[in-house]
């Protein structure tokens, strides 16, 4: 499913936590990893610039050796330039199945999704982007950072408004159902009660497709109320879950998931979130 994964590496205090999550990708069939860390054009002499890039490459290679010991084929890439641009360029050049980005905290998630690195990657990579939650292990300031949820999810949430954008993520949901695997919640949120029966029938049709793939636990939910709250309540607050949804061009979330609602999900979700943009498929 995710044979080849490109990983955006910040070489920050969260790096160890992110790397510790990568062996869990084997459960998705991952064989190849590309570790990408972008650096600003170094100041100083040409020799100093070369030494700086070599030092960064050495740090990545040490991480890569640990991952090779886990059975992955690993390459490292240290371009110069802005982090988002470098990751996007690498995604276009290397054609991974997904791009994985670590997300540190609710505050940083919020910042990321109003224009910084993670948001720009989502907008421009042209590949599905998996956001891996990284959080402190305890509430005190000295707590170590750990990943929240690794490996194959125990639960998958698929919010849909039945638009073309939402349907783009559906093949990835089906892939997660192959051979059984997790439980599923298929969710549609209505502004009012009207139309519930028709929507429920559509969701049940999708649910049957999952059951044909071997999924044993499929729940179809039609809810009325706040879209973000219902999505989070359906599994977005579970560390062992994954929310899978489509994005439109330049990362605009579909229909009921427009703008601030989508940002609420990404800011507050404990689960991983897989965003599927135009042009992405599972083949």
Q: Describe it for me?
A:
- With 283 residues, this protein is α/β, with parallel strands linked by helices.
- It has 10 helices and 11 strands.
- Strands 1, 2, 3, 4, 5, 6, 7, 8, 9, 10 and 11 form an 11-stranded mixed beta sheet that branches.
- Helix 4 packs antiparallel against helix 10.
- The longest helix has 24 residues.
- It is elongated, with a radius of gyration of 19 Å.
- About 8% of the residues have low confidence.
What order do the helices and strands follow? EHEHEHEHHEEEHHEHEHEHE
Q: Termini, distance in Å? A: 8 Å
Q: Could you estimate the helical fraction of the residues in percent? A: 25-40%
* Largest sheet features: 11 strands, mixed
Radius of gyration: 19 Å
Q: Residue ranges: pLDDT <50 for 5 or more in a row?
A: 105-115, 249-259
Morphology: elongated
Beta strand count: 11
Our count of helices gives 10
* Strand-residue proportion: 15-25%
Q: What class do helices, strands and sheet pairing give? A: alpha/beta
Mean pLDDT: 82
Task: Spell out the key features of this protein.
22% strand, alpha/beta, 10 helices, eleven-stranded mixed sheet, 283 residues
List the helices and strands and how they pair.
Elements: E1 4-8, H1 15-21, E2 32-36, H2 46-69, E3 73-77, H3 83-94, E4 98-103, H4 106-112, H5 117-124, E5 129-136, E6 145-147, E7 155-159, H6 164-168, H7 170-177, E8 183-190, H8 196-212, E9 218-224, H9 227-236, E10 241-246, H10 260-268, E11 272-276
Parallel strand pairs: 1-2, 1-4, 2-3, 4-5, 7-8, 7-10, 8-9, 10-11
Antiparallel strand pairs: 5-6, 5-11
Helix pairs in contact: 3-5, 4-10, 9-10
């Amino acid at each position: 499913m995710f044979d080849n994964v490109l990983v955006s590496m910040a070489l920050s205090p969260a790096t160890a936590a992110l790397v510790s999550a990568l062996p869990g990708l084997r459960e998705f069939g991952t064989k190849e990893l590309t570790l990408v860390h972008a650096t600003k054009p170094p100041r100083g002499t040409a020799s100093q610039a070369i030494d700086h890039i070599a030092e960064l490459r050495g740090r990545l290679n040490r991480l890569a050796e640990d991952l090779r010991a886990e059975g992955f084929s690993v390459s490292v890439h240290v371009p110069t330039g802005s982090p988002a641009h470098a990751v996007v360029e690498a995604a276009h050049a290397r054609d991974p199945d997904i791009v994985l980005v670590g997300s540190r905290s609710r505050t940083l998630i919020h910042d990321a999704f109003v224009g910084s690195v993670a948001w720009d990657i989502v907008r421009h990579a042209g590949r599905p982007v998996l956001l891996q939650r990284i959080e402190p292990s305890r509430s005190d300031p000295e707590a170590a950072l750990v990943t929240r949820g690794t490996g194959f999810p125990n639960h998958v949430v698929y919010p849909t408004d039945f638009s073309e954008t939402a349907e783009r993520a559906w093949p990835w949901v089906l892939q997660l159902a192959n051979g059984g695997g997790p439980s599923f919640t298929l969710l549609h949120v209505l502004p009012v009660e009207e139309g519930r029966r028709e929507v429920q029938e559509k969701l049940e049709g999708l649910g049957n497709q999952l059951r044909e793939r071997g999924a044993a636990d499929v729940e179809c939910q039609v809810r009325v109320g706040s879209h973000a709250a219902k999505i989070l309540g359906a599994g977005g607050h579970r560390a062992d879950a994954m929310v899978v949804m489509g994005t439109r061009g330049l990362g605009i979330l579909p229909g009921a998931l427009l703008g601030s609602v989508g940002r609420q999900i990404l800011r507050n979700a404990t689960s991983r979130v897989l965003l599927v943009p135009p042009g992405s498929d599972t083949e």
